Amino acid sequence: MKKIFNSIFIFLFGFSVLQAQEALHIHSHNDYEQKVPFWTAYAAGASSIEADVFLKNRKLLVAHHENETQEERTLESLYLKPIAKGLKLAVIKNEPIQLMIDVKTEATSTLKQIVKAIKRYPEIIENQNIEFIISGNEPLPSEYKNYPEFISFDYQKLEPLTSEQWDRVAMISVDYKNYAGWNGKGRFTHEDLQKVTAVIEEAQSFNKPFRFWGTPDSKSAWKAFEKLGVNYINTDEPFKCASYLFSLKDRVYKNELFAEVYKPTFEHDGLHEPVKNVILLIGDGNGLSEISSSVLANNGNLTLTQLKNIGFIKTSSADDFTTDSAAAGTALATGEKTNNRAIGVNIEEKSIPNLTEILDAKGFNTAVITTDEITGATPSAFYAHQKDRGMNAEIAQDLLKSKLTFFAGGGAKYFTDQKIFDIVPGVNDIANSKADRLGFFMAEGEAPSTLKGRGNLLPETVENALTFMNSEMPFFMMVEGAQIDKFGHFNDVSGIVSEGIDFDKAISEAIQFADKNPGTLVIVTADHETSGFSIPQGNVENHLIEGDFTTHDHTATMVPVFSYGVYSDLFRGVYENNEIFNKILEIVDER
């Protein structure tokens, strides 16, 4: 037992009781079935904990069914002693806790033993944050007054009581199945919703906390009951329920940043005409769910979703099931899969030519734009050759040795005395520049996010850069919406949605340019998906998105490829990410 307590206390301190001070009002139903009764629910943040009790041979045995009782699993051993020890060691803090004792045997005799057992723990009785509630087989309300003040009752009807009787009621609980048949998947029927709403309102009119028992036990159900105002959410999975409900406020985002949707003309879409310009836009971490969240938050549409040619790419790196941005960027830029962390080199760490170098030799001007530092993994894959993405100083030198005509991004701190590129001070200075080689720094380090003051800097940079690059010479331009990935790593729904919408503004600039400049191909894809993002619920009309996550890292899920303009039909289908490179060169060689 000592070892068990030591493990419990380590567990509690490690999880800091999952911030239970926020009072999530979770009821741990059949708590004794947890691997560690009481402590699992308490550590999760449940403020109501239930134990079914059978009186056998003057012992209060805890189990779901009488034939499952065991002599050593008593109310005292599983609950009263742990609570007393937790109070003594100050592991149990000052948040309210209620222990619901569900009486399964005859009420009077069982209650007599319960009262006797509790009285052996005056330190619990005297603690005003701990409450004992009797449920199940309980006395008539008229008999409540016959029991000590340190116990109260779970009233299981919706009939009025006297004020004296109400004083002894701690909670009202009713059987959910008497009012609805919803199983916790999808949504309530309108009829069931009306019945459930009515019973909640009726119960709460008595000014007592309310609980359903026998409810479905799922995320959809937990959220639905919380939204309906059920005071205590019934669950057999207290830790999962608490984790979900506690994080809900951070996973629901009301969007207030909108992108105007551009409707393409499709005049040259899919035609096999000579290609002059290629614009590759990469949403870092921008998987299908990330795109969907931005679509739904932006009134159900983006410029991206107007496009007709759609494919999917597989993203695994040469040495891992799940790629990082360096290996994925290198595959897109060089046509060769490589190891994670590698920039522009193969698995033997030998330099391999990238698109900007190859196309420069074919008479193209080239450009790289990012909201990351310009030395970041994805942008540097299009001009640099280093064995590790963390070699910022060496990557910065590669930029100065590169053939790029234009670059824009953060990371000015790496280029304090360079003289290769003319650096313009503002985004509006880009379009009118006559420089042969031009650069624009958005920030000393990474550019701020859209929600932290970046505004329309990315689409404005793309718009001005397209004007600067548009000349008699053809051009290749890579544009990265870098911070979708950043907020995926943070599991931040607001950042994923807002950065995705901002990225679509850049896409709009590219599509409009393609409509005005025949011979332009636009490709929109991602290097990988980040966070295992999903969208369980939301509201298009109110621009609400609820996101959920499986990881803080990248995933190996396929990512979409959208294409527009000449030869856009070549990008349909499902293929490896390095095939993007081959398809671009095939098209260019048709010139």
Commentary on this structure:
The protein is α/β, with parallel strands linked by helices and 591 residues long. It folds into two domains: 2-253, Phosphatidylinositol (PI) phosphodiesterase (TIM Barrel, Alpha-Beta Barrel), CATH 3.20.20; 255-588, Alkaline Phosphatase, subunit A, CATH 3.40.720. Helix content is 32%, strand content 21%. It is built from 18 helices and 24 strands. It has a ten-stranded mixed beta sheet, with helices on both faces. Strands 1, 2, 3, 4, 5, 6, 7, 8 and 9 form a nine-stranded mixed beta sheet that branches. Strand 6 (151-155), helix 6 and strand 7 (169-175) form a beta-alpha-beta unit. Helix 16 (483-489) packs antiparallel against helix 17. Mean pLDDT is 94; it is low at 1-23.
CATH evolutionary superfamily of the largest domain: Alkaline Phosphatase, subunit A
- What structural category characterises the helix and strand content? alpha/beta
Which segments are poorly predicted (pLDDT under 50) over 5 or more consecutive residues? Answer: 1-23
Shape: elongated
CATH class value of the largest domain: Alpha Beta
Number of domains: 2
Summarize model confidence as the mean pLDDT. Answer: 94
Distance between the termini: 79 Å
The tally of helices reads 18
Signal peptide: 1-20
Protein name: Alkaline phosphatase
Keywords: Hydrolase, Phosphoprotein, Signal
GO molecular function, one term: alkaline phosphatase activity
